[in-house]
Write a structure and sequence with these properties.
Distance between the termini of chain A: 33 Å
Number of helices of chain B: 8
Structural class of chain A: mainly beta
Strand order of the largest sheet of chain A: 2-1-7-4-5
Order of helices and strands of chain B: EEEHEEHEHEHEHEHEHH
Number of domains of chain A: 1
Largest interface: A-B, 26 and 38 residues
Strand content of chain A: 35-45%
Helix content of chain A: 10-25%
Largest sheet of chain A: 5 strands, mixed
CATH superfamily of chain A: Beta-grasp domain
CATH class of chain A: Alpha Beta
Oligomer: heterodimer
CATH topology of chain B: TIM Barrel
CATH architecture of chain B: Alpha-Beta Barrel
Helix content of chain B: 25-40%
Order of helices and strands of chain A: EEEHEEEE
Radius of gyration of chain B: 20 Å
Shape of chain A: globular
Distance between the termini of chain B: 57 Å
CATH architecture of chain A: Roll
CATH class of chain B: Alpha Beta
CATH superfamily of chain B: Aldolase class I
Shape of chain B: globular
């Protein structure tokens, strides 16, 4: 699947992906194919081979 | 006097944008030592290989008010999506709608901004739309129920100050929700001017963040905002065409002729 424009070999749920990549889950949000998936659904959301995943967070901005 | 805005009482009328800050640890000093209460932030993708990288969320004081901007949005749908992400990440319902219509002057797309505002007000957000200074747009936004309007003083990052004073004054005079002048303020004197003409607050980013000493530059802006506000609340004198002596014109000393 594609994660922030990088191809990654991964099978599992969003929760497992976040754990694998080592992100603190309270500081990120996840979009799958352009739609945000709320944290309460990360454990049950199974990612598919062709999913386009975006991991976002807050940065400095004006 | 405090500003009542977005469901909160805000004492400091200087709002600070955190983009381009050399070091996020400055934020805590701005909060503790200058009592800045409102900080703007943006939503961006993160590098999946960065792992537990430094997040601005680690530096935002617990009781500060976070205003998530929708910068990067090109239309109302993208702005709504970013707003929902921002609320998920912060628990803050304050959103600054920023939809760029073009990239040279980064001028906001007022039409798309109105559409996004309608949706986000219904979603329960406190909506702060960044707009070109257009009174009719500001009135429409007021009717929709936004918390404030944020007209630009001049283009983002241009440091040109209050370059459309008559249009800003029209908004300040004709709508009853708060007006926050956002963008283009480059010097403390610009911020004082914004407050003198009756802005309720200013949002400053580039001029502070790119300064050689952001903390003390923020202090300078804080003083300017306070000075301008005090003068506005007292009431400024009218301008006159000719001189009017301040010293008495009677009992003058005159040499013998």
């Amino acid at each position: 699947m594609i994660v922030n424009d990088k191809r990654i070999d991964f099978k599992g749920t969003i929760k497992e992906l976040v754990e694998k990549l080592g992100f603190p889950k309270d500081k990120i949000a996840i979009l799958v194919n352009g739609e945000m998936v709320k944290k309460e659904n990360w454990e049950s959301f199974l990612l598919k081979e062709n999913d386009y995943v975006e991991i976002v967070s807050l940065v400095g901005g004006g | 006097m405090s500003l009542y805005i977005g469901g909160k009482e805000i004492k400091n009328r200087l709002f600070v944008g955190t983009g381009k800050l050399p070091d996020y640890s400055i934020i805590e000093r701005l909060y503790n030592e200058i009592q800045i209460e409102v900080f703007a932030v943006a939503v961006r993708r993160i590098n999946p290989e960065a792992g537990k990288g430094v997040s601005i969320l680690d530096f935002l004081p617990r009781n500060a008010t976070i205003m998530v901007n929708t910068s990067g949005a090109r239309n109302h749908k993208e702005a709504v999506k970013i707003a929902l992400i921002g609320r998920e990440l912060t628990d803050s319902d304050w959103v600054k709608i920023e939809i760029s219509g073009e990239l040279k002057y980064l001028l906001p797309d007022n039409e798309e901004t109105i559409k996004a505002s309608e949706i986000l007000v219904k979603e329960g957000f406190k909506v702060f739309p960044y707009i070109s200074p257009d009174l009719i747009v500001a009135k429409k936004l007021e009717d929709i129920g936004v918390s404030a309007v944020m007209p630009l003083g001049s283009p983002i990052g241009s440091n040109k100050g209050i370059d459309c004073e008559i249009l800003l004054k029209a908004i300040i005079n004709e709508i009853s929700i708060p007006v926050i002048i956002d963008a283009g303020i480059g010097k403390p004197s610009h911020a004082a001017k914004a407050m003198e003409i009756g802005a309720d607050a200013v949002l400053i980013n580039t001029a502070i963040a790119t300064s050689k000493d952001p903390f003390h530059m923020a202090k300078a802006f804080d003083l300017a905002v306070k000075a301008g506000r005090i003068a506005y609340e007292i009431g400024l004198p009218k301008e006159k065409e000719y001189a009017e002596a301040s010293s008495p014109l009677e009992n003058l000393i005159r040499s013998m002729e």
